[in-house]
């Protein structure tokens, strides 16, 4: 006996199968993956292609210059704080690459915003690190990195903004024309983006524990060995809770997440004690650590607030629409599990 879901799937397949009309080699603009509906490269607009090219050039140039600087630091001064910031820039470059690809192919507008914010953070760091924090350690590589950041960052941010304004194709195909379901979908996308941004902020904070370059104390080793895996697992837990709409899991996620502000407070206190006791770490490290702590705490607060929003939306139909087939002319926009949600 066929189920309503299988019948709808058959309808969708027949409505998108053009081979019976003698039309073959029709490009697919969207495909269904294990993670959800995703646009293909054939479905990208010219502005999105321009954004991808500019972003890849920007990120690859930053990575190349950072690697060159890391090699130089390892050979000349392994205990320099420049090693720490080199690793930090590489981590943020990796997140930026993810935001670009995932944000465009999944039409995640908040991830494009996160990419824009990450570019600004890196730009300000390059300016301050070269002109204010370490004027005695200026090198040609740092100057080249600063010039590239100042030249390529503004147009990258501008094109990212215009690309994000055109998103909406996947949202409509997933949840249809219902404004209520579109609201739930956008809140879920915001929560998902904050999960990744929180992981980025925490990873940056943990890496900043490397105050002496390649030389690590026992405490710094434990911080890296425990902090990064904990952040990754906590992020994965939040993703599962969101995808499965697990109310019990959401409570566990919030309780476990209380470790993060505790860790942030610990970092601020230890930094203050070091300064009070006359232990003077790199000025760049100190300022960056405090900035990363403030950013991490802000993102955590936003994430907890958004958790309460998506928690209230559990069981109101979004999960069924994201897992079931797309709305078509014959299935109707709200054909599946309509009785399970109410505004």
Automatic annotation (TrEMBL):
Keyword terms of this UniProt record: Membrane, Transmembrane, Transmembrane helix
InterPro entries reported for this sequence: DUF7789
Transmembrane region(s): 49-71, 83-101, 113-133, 145-164, 222-242, 248-266, 287-305
Pfam families per record: DUF7789
Ranges of residues in domain DUF7789: 36-163, 175-307
PANTHER family: TRANSMEMBRANE PROTEIN (PTHR39299:SF1)
Name this protein carries in UniProt: DUF7789 domain-containing protein
């Amino acid at each position: 006996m066929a189920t309503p879901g299988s019948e709808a799937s058959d309808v969708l397949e027949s409505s998108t199968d053009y081979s019976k009309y003698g039309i073959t080699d029709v490009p697919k603009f969207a495909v269904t993956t294990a993670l959800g509906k995703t646009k293909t490269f054939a479905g990208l607009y010219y502005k999105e292609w321009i954004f991808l090219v500019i972003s890849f050039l920007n990120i690859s140039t930053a990575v190349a210059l950072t690697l060159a600087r890391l090699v130089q630091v390892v050979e000349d001064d392994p205990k320099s704080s420049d090693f720490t910031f080199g690793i930090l820039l590489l981590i943020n470059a990796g997140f930026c690459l993810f935001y670009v690809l995932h944000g465009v192919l999944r039409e995640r507008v908040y991830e494009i915003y996160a990419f824009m914010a990450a570019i600004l953070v890196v730009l300000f760091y390059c300016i301050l690190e070269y002109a204010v924090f370490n004027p005695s350690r200026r090198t040609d590589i740092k100057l080249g990195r600063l010039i590239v950041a100042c030249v390529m960052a503004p147009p990258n941010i501008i094109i990212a903004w215009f690309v994000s304004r055109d998103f909406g194709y996947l949202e409509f195909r997933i949840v249809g024309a219902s404004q209520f379901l579109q609201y739930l979908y956008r809140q879920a996308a915001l929560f998902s983006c904050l999960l990744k941004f929180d992981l980025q902020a925490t990873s940056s904070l943990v890496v900043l524990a490397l105050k002496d370059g390649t030389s690590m104390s026992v405490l710094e080793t434990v911080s890296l060995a425990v902090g990064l895996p904990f952040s990754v697992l906590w992020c994965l837990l939040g993703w599962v809770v969101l995808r499965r709409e697990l109310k019990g899991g959401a409570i566990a996620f919030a309780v476990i997440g209380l470790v993060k502000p505790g860790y942030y407070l610990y970092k601020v206190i230890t930094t203050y004690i070091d300064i009070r006791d006359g232990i003077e770490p790199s000025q760049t490290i100190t300022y960056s650590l405090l900035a990363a702590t403030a950013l991490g705490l802000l993102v955590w607060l936003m994430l907890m607030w958004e958790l309460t929003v998506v928690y209230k939306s559990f069981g109101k139909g979004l999960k069924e629409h994201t897992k079931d087939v797309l709305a078509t002319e014959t299935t109707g926009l709200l054909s599946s599990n309509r009785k399970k949600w109410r505004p």
